[in-house]
Each structure stands twice: as C-alpha cells, then as structure tokens.
Amino acid sequence: MIDQQAGSAVRTPAECERCGKSLERSTFEVRTADNARLRCLTCALTFWPLVRRSAIVALIVGTILTTINQGNIILGGDFPASLYWKIPLTYAVPYCVATTGALLNSRRLVQSAEGTA
Ligand SMILES: [Zn+2]
C-alpha cells in the first residue's frame, strides 16, 4: 500500500468501503474516530459528520448574511414574497461552499490493486 499526501497515489482495493461502488472516477477519504475510510461521492456527501459540520456553518453564516442583507426589511415589519426564496438560498450557499471545500480537501487518487506496477 502506498499512502502519501492528498492528491497523490494511494493503492487500495478500488471500491467504496460503504456501498461497494467502484472508486475509479472519484474517491474521498472520510475520517472517523478511529481511522480514515475511502468513499464514493454519494457516500461522502451523506457522511453524517460532514453534513452536520456544513449545516452548522450554514446556520452561522446564513444567519449573518440574512441579517446583513435582509435585516432592515424584516425588522421593519415587512416580509415581501421574495424573501421566501432569498433566505433559504442565503443558507444554502454557505452549506454548498463548506461541503465543496471539505470534499475537495478529502479527494484522493486511487489506483486499483491490479493497476500499474
Ligand atoms: Zn459509496
């Protein structure tokens, strides 16, 4: 097994450790309390610690941005219909940014065991 820094080659069985899907297209290393595991994109996106962390970031940043951008309108007692899509979008953006950053940092290049020698 060759295990080096992010972006370098890792020789492992090329299957997601959760669902068994082939990891030839995309591989992500998720860290649990005891060790790191290789996952496909779908399993990495549904990895609970990542979802929880991104949700916390979205809650904090989304609240700050909503306050900055829409606070005067909300405190003024007015709630126009456009806020029904603007506010959820304000929370969705930091969630996507946090999730994308975490996935890009956990991305790994995997070579199958029967690959190049
Ligand atoms: Zn998977």
Write structural notes for this entry.
Helices cover 49% and strands 15% of the residues. It has 117 residues and is α+β, with helices and mostly antiparallel strands. The protein has one domain. The chain has a four-stranded mixed sheet with strand order 1-4-2-3. Bound molecules: zinc ion. Residues 16, 18-19, 21, 39-40, 42-43 line the site of zinc ion (ZN).
Extended strand count: 4
| SS element count, helices | 3
Q: Give me the secondary-structure category.
A: alpha+beta
Average pLDDT reading: 86
Order of strands, main sheet, comes to 1-4-2-3
Question: What is the count of distinct domains?
Answer: 1
Report the helical percentage: 40-55%
Separation of the first and last Cα atoms: 12 Å
Helix and strand string, N-terminal first? Answer: EEEHHHE
Gyration radius (Cα, Å) is 19 Å
Low-confidence stretches: none
